[in-house]
Amino acid sequence: MSQVTAAILVIGDEILSGRTKDRNIGYIAEYLTNSGIDLREVRVVPDLEEEIVGAINALRSRYTYLFTTGGIGPTHDDITADCVARAFGVSIDIDERAVNVMLERYKREELNEARLRMARIPAGAELIDNPISKAPGFMIGNVIVMAGVPSIMQAMLDDVAPRLRTGSRVLARIVDAAGLGEGIYAEGLAAIAAAHPAVSIGSYPAFQAGGFRNQIVLRGRDAAALDAAEKAVIGFIAGLSSDRAPV
What we know:
By secondary structure, this protein is α/β, with parallel strands linked by helices. It is 39% helix and 26% strand. It contains nine helices and eleven strands. The longest helix is centred in the C-terminal third of the chain and has 22 residues, at 223-244. The protein starts with a strand and ends with a helix.
């Protein structure tokens, strides 16, 4: 099965200013990992057309899928849909499919100019359902355009996920470093990683009561290769631990 890759483009001045704390990247990353899609890159750009269009074209050409969050609301600075249309070189206008969906929440007379901005969809795009506030997201080519509000984004992701191509899931193993500092096992761990190129090996320290606790995480798609690397790491750590044990 071929590898499926993805990037996330987070759009919004409020993220870059720190006013809004992003809660979508981690959720999407875990969702994609569980679906067998490798997240390879995340970018955050301001509400500037040139920046958004440039990032869309760079990322959609590099990865199987590009997920965007933010900038599809009713205000003047919500320009994501226009930028996507420009990136693809297609027109954008009020889409009656989107209007009909929004009429499930609003009366026709309540669809003012601002709200109708949320019904502007690039030509040729598929709609993504929004069961919470009804204004849809959309997918065009390999670009999935979703809201920035976490609950709405999550609902949109659930709707679009069945349409996506997926790969084999990444398997993971965790080896506790037995109280050893990273500086003690770093060189040996690098040698093990070089000897097992099909497996990604990383060391992750966490501060807990009483000091640091280091965990070594192994990730890969080949179970046999992962088992072999895990065995090598466990043996290596055990050897270091015994060397430090009191006589």
